[in-house]
Structure formats: structure tokens, C-alpha cells
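Recap from last week: sequence in, structure out.
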Amino acid sequence: MASRDRARTLVIGIGSPDRGDDGVGPLVIELLRERGDRDLAFLDHHGEGAALIEAWDGSAAVFLVDAVRSGAAPGAIHRIDACVRSVPVQIFHTSSHAFNVAEAIELARVLNRLPPRLIVYGVEGRRFDVGSGMSSEVARATDEVVERLFKEVDGSVREVSW
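Predicted C-alpha cells:
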């Protein structure tokens, strides 16, 4: 877990590198740290709902990156503004947590604990077996997610998708 100033923009990479494409969140965090050219706070997170709500508490803007499974092609990137609309619970069905990312977001909404800005980037996964490597499609998508995050943090992108 990274130390951070809670007022800054926080990027949370959710997942487990030991479960194939589920490692996309931590890989994006690793790539962001390597670039190191933005005033961002980073957090590798296991994705457990209550801990996730606590992790973003006090942050002005939060970006979550996690693997999803919606039926789209592996490597497809989905973007959801969670302050504008609900996050589809069924796309996070691969979660091994007590309740998944979408359920945590909706609980935070009910409890009035959403950050002022909450954007979810879901990368369509293919492999989630323990011990499997990341698929080439998801590995390629990580660079695109990093670029989109930097553009969005800079304010040059206000895209709506999904």
C-alpha cells in the first residue's frame, strides 16, 4: 500500500497477479509508477469491498482498474463514471472477494461515501485460473489504460462509454 495525500488523485489497481488476467490492475499500477511523471497516488488492492471504501475515503478523484468479464473480446477496455451511473454487478462475477467492486461502489453510494469523482476502468479478461499467465490481449491493453488515465487526469479526456 502506498502512502498518499488523501486530497490527491488516487489510482487503485485491483486484482491478483497470480490469477492470470486478474493481475491487470496491479500491472497498470506498476506501469504508472515507472512513468512517475504525474502527481498521482497509487494503491495495489485486493478488492475486498469494505476495505476498498476505506481506501478511497477522503480522495478527491479515484480511478479503479480491474479485470472484468462481460462477454466482450479479451483486452476490450470499458470505462464507467460511477458517479453518473451504476456499475454492472455481473461483469465482476470473477471476484473472489466477499463482495465485488460493483457491489462495493453501490454500497458506498447508499452510504454517501463515494468520492466526488470515481471512474472505473474494466479490462476484459480471458484467463483467471490460479497460476496462469496474463493473456496477450490484456497485457497489450494495459498500455492503453495507462495512456487513458494520464489523459483523463490532465483533463483532456471526458469520454463516456459502456
